[in-house]
Amino acid sequence: MKRLFLLLVGLLIAPVVIAEPVCQNNDSASYEKCMMDSIANQLLNSRYNYAMDLLNTYEDWYRSQKKTDIKSLGRIYSNGAAIKYMKGDYESALNDYEGAINLYRSAYDIERAMEAVVNKGVVIASMNRYDEAIKVIKEAEEYYRKNNRIIDLSDVLFTEGIIYFFDNKISDALSRFSESSNLYLKANLKIRYLLAQVLQGIMKAKLGEYKEAAYLCQENILSSSLKYYCIALANDGMGNQKEAKMYFEKALSRIDTKVNQTLINSDEKAAQALSEKYAPIFTDYMLFMLKNSIKSM
Questions:
Q1: Whole-model pTM?
Q2: Which residues, at least 6 apart from 167, have a Cβ–Cβ distance to it below 8 Å?
């Protein structure tokens, strides 16, 4: 999750490829940790086929040892599900997460079970079954609230906000981003707080709360495409077309340095045209955040 936020605010430009250690299987615990870390690193760097090769190697070793550790088997299912999800095989990923959840529950590993529950919800949301996804994730949300797991709760609320956005339930998305930003601030996770705050501002702008949106995003210290998009939406809603155009251009220039220079200040439709140009980019951002809320285990 930390890498996701760094990527979105521009503090991490590209995946960091780390040389893989050679995992020695002379010690079960060390070998398992080495393999799981290697698989997680491959997932972070979008090397899904290599990640699956590593997982298959580990699973073959696990079964050859005739191990009965249910948690380890749960991790095999969980990581297999994450890889399949990233490759777009949602049905197989969903089945594997359900298997992982059952294994973790039978081992009384509730923490990992809840992580798998959230991942399952993300897969379901990616299949456009938004109401079902929220119902699934609510179990983890309630668990984290009950056990005062502030960071986990913040991440879950952030994910719910994204799902509500795609379900066009903007008020619900706003409430989730608002609560998650407050919790991130409480946990002193400043980058996450700032990103959640910007999304809160964008949702306010979409609901017509333009002054509140402008205040939230202008006060935000991030220099990100999303921040400028938020300020542009707010100004556009308040009728400040010149300011709106300027900030739409700033938002786009953070991504594409070849912004359409034919849109001049006197063009009354310039802000609208730029807004329409950025809208699918924002959707892509939200899809990226949803996809990368999946946790490997």
A1: 0.87
A2: 130, 131
